[in-house]
Amino acid sequence: MGLALVIIIGAILGWLGAFLLGRDDVFGGTINVFAGIAGALFAATRAGPDLLPYGASAIELIWGCLGAALAIIIVNLASDLITSSAEHRS
């Protein structure tokens, strides 16, 4: 149950991040959702070893939210840097 909760939180934060950053295209929104899930899973599993067998604690969920937000920020910064460097080359 804890694993599913962390994945859902990561996906919701990814979608919210895409919405707030104005990523209107499907690709950008999808990348944000996957980044949110990956960040949430990584941070939650580092916060406590009991995520998979026993469910998520409040600390693991908080770290999962922070990890999702950090992953979304990193993905969007990298995307903006790649886009801006490609525009400068043209």
From TrEMBL:
It comes from the Bacteria. It comes from Qipengyuania algicida. This is GlsB/YeaQ/YmgE family stress response membrane protein. Keywords: Membrane, Transmembrane, Transmembrane helix. The chain crosses the membrane at residues 6-22, 29-49, 61-82.
